Amino acid sequence: MSALALAFRDSSTMLRRNLLHARRYPSLTLNLLLTPIMLLLLFVYIFGDAMSSGIGGGTPDRSAYIAYVVPGLLLMTIGSTVVGTAVSVSNDMTEGIIARFRTMAIHRPSVLIGHVVGSVFQAVVSVVLVGAVGVAIGFRSTDATALEWLAAFGLLVLFATALTWIAVGMGLISPNAEAAGNNAMPLILLPLLSSAFTPVDAMPGWFQPIAEYQPFTPAIETLRGLLLGSEIGHNGWLAVAWCLGLAVLGYFWSTSKFNRDPK
C-alpha cells in the first residue's frame, strides 16, 4: 500500500474508534449539548421580550430576538462540543493508549486526525440538533438562497475544524481530563462576550473591543448575514481569516506536542 493509502486507512480506523467512544459514553456530549439548548430557551422565553425591546427600540418582539440569537447559539454549540475533544485527547494521553500506539506501525498523525474528524462530525450533528430546536420555537430563514445556505454550512464546518485543532492542543498540554475541561472553557465563555446575545454597539465602550476583536463575533455576524440577509461587510473575510489562522495554529501546536517523545 502507498503511504497515502496507509494514512487514510489508519485515520479511518482512529475515526471509528472515536465515534465508538462517543456512542458508548454519550453523557459528556449530551451535557455539552444541553448548555446551548438551555441558553436558547432561557434567552428566548425568559429574557426574550426585554432583550428584543432593547434591540428593537422599545418594541418587544420575541420572534425577532429568536432570529437574532439562533446564529450565535449555533456557533456556541461548536465551542461547547469541542470541549469534549480536549477531554478525550487528554484521556488518551494519560491512560497509556498513546504509548501503545507509538509502538505500532501506524501513521502517527492518524491519531489526531481521528479526533479532529470525529469532533467536527459531532459538532455538525450538535448544530443540526440545536438548529432544529430553534426552528421548533420559531426561527425562520426564508430569504436565504441555496448558495447562502451552502456558505453558512461551510462556515460552520470551517469554524468547527479550527476550534477542534485548538481543543486538541489544549488536551495535549493538560495533565488530566479535569484540567483539559478547564483549559477549554474559554471556548464556551467567548461566545458570551461576543455579539451572540446583544449587539456590540449596545455594550459599554470599554468592553466593545473585547467583543469585537475575537473569532466568534465576525463569525456570528457572517452567519446572521447569510441566514437572515443582514449586512455582512468585512465580517466575512475576518471570520474566514480567524478560522484559517486558528486551524493552522492549532494544527502545528498539536502536532508538535504530539510528536514530542515522552520523557
Number of strands: 0
* Continuous helix count: 12
Could you tell me the radius of gyration in angstroms?
A: 19 Å
Q: Which word captures the global form?
A: elongated
The computed structural class is mainly alpha
Helix content: over 70%
Distance between the termini: 33 Å
Residue share in β-strands: under 5%
**Topology pattern, helix = H, strand = E:** HHHHHHHHHHHH
- Mean pLDDT over the residues: 86
Q: What is the makeup of the main sheet?
A: none
Question: Segments where pLDDT lies below 50 for 5+ residues?
Answer: none
Description:
It comes from Streptomyces anatolicus. Its main location: membrane. By secondary structure, the chain is an all-alpha fold. Helix content is about 75%, strand content about 0%. It is built from 12 helices and no strands. Helix 4 runs parallel beside helix 7 (about 145-170) and helix 4 (about 60-95) runs antiparallel to helix 9 (about 185-190). The longest helix has about 35 residues, at about 60-95. The mean pLDDT is about 85.
Compact summary:
The chain is mostly helical.
List keywords for this structure.
mainly alpha, 76% helix, elongated
Mind sketching the topology for me?
Layout: H1 3-24, H2 27-45, H3 48-55, H4 62-94, H5 97-102, H6 110-136, H7 146-172, H8 177-183, H9 186-192, H10 208-212, H11 216-228, H12 235-259
